[in-house]
Every structure is written in C-alpha cells, then in structure tokens.
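Progress note, sequence design subtask.
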C-alpha cells in the first residue's frame, strides 16, 4: 500500500479506493461490501457530503476516495458485512451470500500474500528495519526537544519548594550571636536519626561555632551541607523508608540522589537536632554570603568563619565552573565531597545523651 503506515484499517480503506477507481467509468450503481465498520461509516459520511480533514488519519486515501465519489456519474452505496461468520448462521439468503463471499475474499487475500516473490519479502525486511531505525532516531530527537522544553519552562518558573516566604532584601539580625551551650547529644534526636549521625553533625557544628564571637551572616543550607562534607567526608543523612546514616547506605554515591535533595535532608536533621537542644537560630529565605550562590534560598544567620565560606565557594566553582542563579538545576549535579584541604578535621563528642 502507499505510505509508510501499513495496517489492516489502511488496507480496508485502500481496497475501497481501488474498487472506486476500477469502476470510475461505470454509469450504473456501484455496490461496495466491507467487513470494517469504521470504513463503512466513514464512506457513508462522505456520501452525505462530509469533508475530509487534511490532518486526519489516512487523509491521503480519504481525499482520493472523496474525489472519486464526487466525480462518479452513477449511484454508489456501501454495506457492512459481519466478518468471519459461517454460512449456517445466516438468517436469510442475503446474509448467506454476504458470509460466503466475505470468506472467499479473506481466503484470496491470504493466498495473494503468501504467493509474493522472495524479492518482496527481502524488501519488506529492509523496510521494517528502516522504520525501526527511523523510529529510534525520532524518539531520541523528541526526547532532546522535551528536555529543552522542560528546561525553558523550569527557568521561566523558578523552583519555589523552600517552605519560606520570598523576601527581596533581608537584613542580617542586629542582635549578637547567642553562645552555644555545652554540647549534649539529645536522645529525642537519636531515636529518629541515629546516634552516629546526630553525634557527628552536632560535633561538627559545635566545633565550628562554640565560643565564636564573629558577626552574623546569612549562610545557606547548601553551604552548611558542603562545609559538613568537606570537613568530615560524610554523605550526610539519607531518608529511604526511614532515616539512615549515609555511611551505612550501600553504594550511596551511585543512587542518583541530587545535591538539592541531600542538602534538604541535611538541613532537616540539623534543624531538628538544634530544636531538641533548645538552640535558637534565625532563618530566612534570602541570598547568602556567597559569590557562587547568587539566588534566593533557605539561609541561617550564623557567625560562620569567613575563610570557610571562601573555601566553600572555591569548591563549588571547581565542581560547577560557574555561579548558581534563579534556582538553576545545575546545583543538583554537585557531587559528594571527600575531606578537603583547608577544612578542619572533626572530632566526635564523647558526651552522653
């Protein structure tokens, strides 16, 4: 049949077209018989004056059929015949005639197909392989186009998943930093997140800010998570069906967790640990003290060492090669970090719960 699409429905349509072309010069009535209900209904609509939509399925064949129907001088009619019906089920002579001849047509169609020469089957195999190859290329191209469209839409509508109001200009709190109390490991936090994870996280935080008297600056959750990894080499907490110590999760670096997701888990556990210890920290949705993260995100007001913030910027620049703006997805590709030069080693607290 003409066209790349080869299907049983198209074969029925093409059969109607060939019948009309063969009887084009016949002046009398032409009666068509088909066991395809769809084709019968569509031809009936064309006989009643319906038009063919150029972008509809098999429009190339339907347009030719419509032209044949319009140019014929004689009458044309079409009748539906039930397919694959035995003659003894017929209720009258007309049905018996229809069932018999429909079966004969099906038989002749099978014989015609099986009698094709080998050259045809060779060409058919090549045609199928070409269609499959073209289909694979089309799927790849469509996938690229879809990815580009998603990226455009994403950048036009920045991610607002942070649970905080967007503030254009958020001043740093003017009150001095409230000194951290003596470190203790809260039992309420260890029941949820595990002793090893809570102990390491709080040891890192206390070691950095205990008895610190610097000025408050906005430090993003992303920066805190990077600092934690660069000091400890630890992947941080991981939430699967429950909260887990990332070091105990097999092949954690191969599981495809995005940086944003890992940072969100880290911030959740860190905030809950501070809550259990009654440590108050000011939070805001603003731009942090960073030359690389130049977008609004969740931040905490902390007297974080300025040198450590520069080291964090250097690590992000080394990994990403640029800054992060407007909730760009590029930040999701930031990797896990091993202990980095310039960051202090963390010593675990031995205090009890």
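Output:
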């Amino acid at each position: 049949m003409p066209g790349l699409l080869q299907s049983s429905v198209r074969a029925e349509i093409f059969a109607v077209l060939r019948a009309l072309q063969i009887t084009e010069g016949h002046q009398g009535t032409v009666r068509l018989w088909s066991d395809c209900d769809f084709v019968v209904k569509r031809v009936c609509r064309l006989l009643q004056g319906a038009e063919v939509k150029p972008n509809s399925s098999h429009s190339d064949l339907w347009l030719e059929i419509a032209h044949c129907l319009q140019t014929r001088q004689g009458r044309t009619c079409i009748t539906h015949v039930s397919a694959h019906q035995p003659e003894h089920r017929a209720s009258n002579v007309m049905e018996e005639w229809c069932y018999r001849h429909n079966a004969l047509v099906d038989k002749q169609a099978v014989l015609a197909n099986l009698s094709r020469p080998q050259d045809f089957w060779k060409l058919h195999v090549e045609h199928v392989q070409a269609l499959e190859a073209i289909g694979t290329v089309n799927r790849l191209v469509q996938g690229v186009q879809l990815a580009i469209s998603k990226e455009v839409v994403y950048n036009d509508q920045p991610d607002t998943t942070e649970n905080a109001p967007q503030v254009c200009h958020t001043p740093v709190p003017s009150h001095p930093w409230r000194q951290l109390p003596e470190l203790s490991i809260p039992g309420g936090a260890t029941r949820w997140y595990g002793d090893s994870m809570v102990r390491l996280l709080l040891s890192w935080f206390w070691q950095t800010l205990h008895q610190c008297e610097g000025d408050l600056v906005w430090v993003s959750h992303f920066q805190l998570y990077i600092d934690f990894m660069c000091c400890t080499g630890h992947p941080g907490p991981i939430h699967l069906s429950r909260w887990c110590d990332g070091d105990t999760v097999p092949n954690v670096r191969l599981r495809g967790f995005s940086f944003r997701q890992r940072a969100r888990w880290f911030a959740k556990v860190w905030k809950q640990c501070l809550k259990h210890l009654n440590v108050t920290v000011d939070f805001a949705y603003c731009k942090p003290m960073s030359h690389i993260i130049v977008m609004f995100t969740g931040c905490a007001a902390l007297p974080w060492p300025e040198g450590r913030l520069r080291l964090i910027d250097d690590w992000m620049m080394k990994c990403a090669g640029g800054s992060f703006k407007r909730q760009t997805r590029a930040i999701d590709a930031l990797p896990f970090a091993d202990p980095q030069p310039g960051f202090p080693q963390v010593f675990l607290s031995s205090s009890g719960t």
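Confidence is low (pLDDT under 50) at residues 157-168. Work on this subtask will continue into the next period as scheduled.
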